[in-house]
Fold each of these.
Amino acid sequence: MGRENIREGIGESEVYLDFIESVSRAAKVDRPVILVGERGSGKELAARRLHFLSKRWQGPLVTVNLASLPDTLIETELFGYEKGAFTGALGTRKGRFEEAEGGTLFLDEIGLVPLSVQEKILRTVEYGTYERVGSSETRQADVRIVCATNADLQKLAREGRFKEDLLDRLSFEVLFVPPLRERGRDIMLLANHFSARMATECNLDYVPYFSPEAETLLLNYPWPGNIRELKNTVERAVYRSRTEEIKTIDFDPFLNPFRKPEPEKKKEDIILSDYPHIHEDVDVAFFRKALLESGGNQRRASEKLGLSYDQFRGVYRKLKDRIMQD
């Protein structure tokens, strides 16, 4: 992910703008920051913004995805090692702290660091020094640490799985990345951005747009995978769509890419029930809207949804309690 991809961190919802303001304020203070957020919510984008808005912006930004490393390699990955430090150490290697000198070190999934390595990180944060594995030479560390997690670090600390002293030192500022489902119309801003970019990649001579029904579907889906899931969903829709208008039948946020495609239906045969009851949250949203626009008349609501009255009643009986909630 290059610096230009910060443009994907777009949004105009109040919750997102408040978050960006907090990031900008924290960027100016050369202290550790912890970013807390769900998977795919944009924690790495926020870390990049923290770096490029800081006085260290001309220095390196080094990212370590701790989830991708076995526990036994995390220490050498962070601090490097000397030749002969262990079997297979045939030469000297710099660690990520050394590579990030003068810049920012982004530690993604900080909650996965073993306690033994947490102790060494704590010493580095407190005293600004460290040693490579297999060396007694003390090195200086001029590095700002930014961490990210979707875990409850306070709970891990209470359970003895995360050092309280380290948590205190890293949490000079704790910023909570808002999940996509709380960002309202930002969903469509991002969807249109991903759509335009995918259209270019597919060499299309037009920029696809979303039908009102498809837009409603996007806005009502809870997006457990957040921005990453939205990006994949929209890109797949643009790739598979044959027209400028992306309809609900063209793209399904819950589509299993491994599912064998069904024979193409004629436009007049496409009805809401053709979805494999993709997600109850979406069904509830559609039914509420149809009933609202139909003044509570179920037969007219079923017509709006393209369902037979019996089909409508079948789904309605199952989800009545949720549909009728305020």
Amino acid sequence: MGVGMEVKLAECIGFCFGVKRAVDTVYEQIKNGKNIYTYGAIVNNEEVVKDLAGKGVRVLESKEALEGLPESGCASVVIRAHGVPEEVYGILNEKKLECVDATCPFVKRIHRIAEKESRDGRHIVIVGNAGHPEVEGIIGWCGGLVTVLKNEEEAEKFTVPEEEKLCIVAQTTFNYKKFHNIVEILEKKGYNSIVADTICSATEERQRSARTLAAEADVMIVIGGKHSSNTRRLYEICCEECVHTYFIQTLDDLHLELPKAVRLVGITAGASTPNKLIEEVQNYVRINF
């Protein structure tokens, strides 16, 4: 490590509660000697999914793949941390497959809100990324009108009849600041809205600690899966505070070009990033720079 150079981890980093619980659930199921499937990748981290595949865990990518499974008492289907639409439970029940539900409790809460409020006639507005597994799952619990908004521009363009009632929720890993900006835009339109701030506390803390560290670092390294929404948020936040920010999935992706006189290298990681990987990157930077 260069003279006087410090490598510092963000205060809140790595596996969040929901991800740890989901991953631990799959490893527990492996011990039972059954055929294990996960509905979608259990978490958005290629290294974790690869390790599970090496232990015989197979990923079901669609409802059709699930429907194609034979009815069997020796197979378990684990529901991913992101959650799934309500109809997936119906298929599992119909086929008499064992369902092991590893949906993050924070996501489950959004499902309950969406189900209740849409039943009460409210138009559900999900602040998040259309196509993301968590958002797709939430949509599947809405019995009526639903709209997904990903940024302030879309919120400005969004209009509904004056008498329509809204319920606004957020993808658990959405950018906290951006969510509140979008809510403010919708509230200014004067709609009859209820707002459920469903960004999970771990996401909030992770984003806050990444921003704090990036603001004082000369270089920031963000570790996480390329499809991980929460890791992309961290990368965006770090880029706002630190020009030399790198997004990597594994140590192999780390090609650092350090500016002269680097005083502090900061490291943060998404909610699906294993501690082992964080330690590898931290040790590598300490030894080689």
